[in-house]
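note to self: dont lose this again. the chain is below, predicted strucutre after it. 281 aa total, dont forget to put it in the shared folder this time
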Amino acid sequence: MSSYESNEEDSEEVQAAIEHVRTLYEAGTPLFTKAAIKKLAEDLDAFRRGVLKDDKIVLRTLDGDDVDYIIVTCWEDVKEDILHIEYRSFERLTNKRLYQFHNRRFFPLHVLYCQKHEREDCPARTTEDACRELDNAKTEWEQSEHHAQLQRPLASVKLPSSIKKVIGFALGPFSDPYCEWRCRIQHSILMTIHQWASASMDDKMKPQCYVQDPIYSDQERKVLETMGVTVLDDPWGFLEADESSIIISIAPDVPVRQIITDISRPAIIIWDKKWVHERPA
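---
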């Protein structure tokens, strides 16, 4: 068989795999389930603690087939912090490049290997300084026209008493000089929504405020805790999402929208209008 014929057959096989994914997705097959996310999170935690038998996890394809996967690493500190869940969106699963370098099985959830990099270019700040800077950004946001514009639709919404939590996803590292302003505003929006949700409830019924973003530094976690925001490790924020939740996520680099719509039906969802593939009605 010539190289040309081999490449042509290879391309046809990839295209067939992509069309199969598209057919399953448009038929309503979920990419993500809470059970699958929780199981993978528990397995990765067991691996980090050195108690995962044979370093083996089970990954499930979009077809529902279970496939054994051996975690193989080459970094000495891998058990501590560089294994994460990779969430593969519909767009990723229908991208030919994915099948050029990976087994042609369609795994919506996989293991992501990444080395932890300290943000060395961030200016040194005390926790008190970082807290003050985020609080100043919140004050600036509350005095802005955009805040006033947000208040108008919020005032017209009758919030159900069943709301128990406000959860922000991928709101970003607010101490990183490359994106600190945007990330501080996003966290300010989260706190505005939490204040709004809390305003009509007595103290015993006030909703909890959560965030999930693996990129937070230890200092950012402390700042958020100081401001009454609980930081959840990935994927426990996703697993908290339910019909009693308000979800906030703006331009995330993970498919938050596809994950949330597959695993829960939140009371309110606030996110940007970035285009994503919609399932047929």
